[in-house]
Amino acid sequence: MITRRRVVAGSTGALLLASVAGTRAFAAAEAAAEPLIALPGKQALIRRTFRPPNYETPLAQLRPQITANDTFFVRYHLASIPEADARTWRLRIGGASAQRTLELSLDELKRDFERVRVVAVNQCSGNRRGLFTPRAAGVQWSYGAMGNALWGGVRLRDVLERVGVKGDAVEVVFDGADQAPLPGTPDFVKSLPVDRALDEHTLIAFEMNGEPLPHWHGAPARLVVAGWTATYWVKHLTSISVQPKAFEGFWMKSAYRIPTGVFPGARFASQENAATTPITEILINSLITSHVDGDRLQRGRPADLTGWAWDGGSGVGAVDLSTDEGRSWRSITLGVAPSPYSWRGFRAVLDTSKSGPLHVAVRATGRNGATQPEKLTANPAGYHHNIIQTLTLEVA
Amino acid sequence: MSARWRCGPALVALFIGSLATAAGEESVKLQDAPGRDLVVARCAVCHSVDYVQMNAPVLDRAGWEKSVRKMIDQFGAPISEADAKSILDYLATNY
């Protein structure tokens, strides 16, 4: 049995490097050195924890519109992560609110359903937790617990249709192969409201950026819940269960919850109580990737400020720039987004004609009218950090 | 939902003796002070102890206590009350 509980990281030695990219940008998150370490099959990323593996993408690797598989962030709750065998892997679908049960091999999943693809941001609920004031306990992420990828697979809806969803269905429950070392630790099991499970942008994905889903990203198949935070994107998927009631597990009832009625975003009615409710959609947000706080600009030489804006799927409608500490804003150029769930580029040419500090602030607005707030909304778990980013650059 | 591995205290003890650590994890060194070996023995069953360093700027004694209780009460860590107190004292004193 112990041999089944695989060592988290493989046999290749960890690569220890001094943190180079974005050091100042991450300084607020953790003053100590941030070692870049490569998991097997990955490039060196910012190690937050070795086991379970939590690795963050450095700012420089967030500059491409599609985040490469080998630089994409890695997040796990439980440290026993089996290496999947695609030949013997089976996905079981059933539950009390399903009319029948079904077991699918990877080949059957690929062959028997229509193939679909979506570019979507995969963002940890706790991305930027390390930037919270007051501080919030948990993995002290900076900006890089997110990425944007092309996910390929089949619609969950089509698979659920095959088993028949009964009229009394309330939630769909998802489990993956990763487990805790101790039997008493709650298994990482998540649920979705049945309407979100049946949404055409909720996929069972087996490809990431055109490649078979890599191990650290949930091989051989994972859930993709475009527009919702990554906690729902269950990796190493093994079972899907349609249920007539709210799922009671720790990772729904105790974890990944925000104060009720405080944040915008889809409601998850079956899991909501008067005090707390599950985090759901990604909120409107943006990230400057061209510069970090304190960067020097050469006087008289125009500088391009670039980055990404995204939300939970309404699509980014506008990005505004302020260079006077938020007194005035002007809309700046937007790039093309391959899908409303993808991040969308922005670009502005900075006026560097005057020496001295240059305060830049970027604010994104979604097509649904939601805009980035100025102030953080404190919440115990440190979720939904989406305040307007401000940098002070130095023109000299 | 997954098939779970059930084991008694004896097997848990055996398991502690054969930790499945991650490559590079041995580079994490906690402060050398009374209680360190106990912290490593109990906490590293499930996770690398860089979790301790990472949360040091965030947690005070009350925060550490909440964290230790969570591990015992919600995550099923088999830790005696005496050990829990020693672990808390170490964490609150050194981090």
Report what the structure shows.
The complex is a heterodimer of chains A (396) and B (95). Helices cover 7% and strands 33% of the residues of chain A. Chain A is mostly beta strands. Chain A folds into three domains: 8-70, no CATH class; 90-278, Oxidoreductase, molybdopterin-binding domain (Sulfite Oxidase, Chain A, domain 2, Alpha-Beta Complex); 285-395, Immunoglobulin-like (Sandwich). In chain A, a hairpin with a 7-residue loop joins strand 5 and strand 6. Chain A starts with 22 loop residues before the first helix and ends with a strand. Residues 1-32 of chain A have low confidence and may be disordered. With 95 residues, chain B is an all-alpha fold. In chain B, 53% of the residues lie in helices and 0% in strands. Chain B is built from five helices and no strands. Chain B has helices spanning 9-16, 36-43, 50-55, 61-74, 81-94. In chain B, helix 4 (61-74) runs antiparallel to helix 5. The radius of gyration of chain B is 14 Å and the shape is globular. The interface between A and B is large, with 51 and 36 residues.
